[in-house]
Amino acid sequence: MPDVDLLSPTPGDYQALTDLWERSVRATHTFLTEEAIRFFYPQVRDTFLPAVALTAARDRDTGLFAGFAGTADGKLEMLFLDPTRRGQGLGRRLLEHCLRTQDIHSVDVNEDNPQAVAFYRHMGFTVIGRSELDGSGKPFPLLHMRLTATTV
Length: 152
Prior knowledge:
Shape: globular
CATH superfamily: Gcn5-related N-acetyltransferase (GNAT)
CATH class: Alpha Beta
Number of strands: 7
Structural class: alpha+beta
CATH architecture: 3-Layer(aba) Sandwich
Helix content: 25-40%
């Protein structure tokens, strides 16, 4: 994995992070329609990013964001990677950083994103519940997961 620096992004970075979110979602959330992506895009930028403590990974060579995580109240609220950076250990690095620095113990994962579910299971999370609707009331079922084993 090329070297990245972990940093706390500022509101001036929200547009770049939202664009990264869109690239990530298009690559991994194949269950989302174009309409759903357009619905969530401004919410990510204007509502979701400002509501969480953010940690971003910036590539040292290019200066571009490679991924980011957002947390609130002991919960991992978001973790997105640029599609070209998947499978390189960056998601693990971001999650482990959040586990060490922000006392994360839970995450909600889209049930229809089996790679994400497998990642969190591998990282020590166990499914403890399920919801038919996501946090916006949309019909995208969520698995509620809790950390039961530590990998850090």
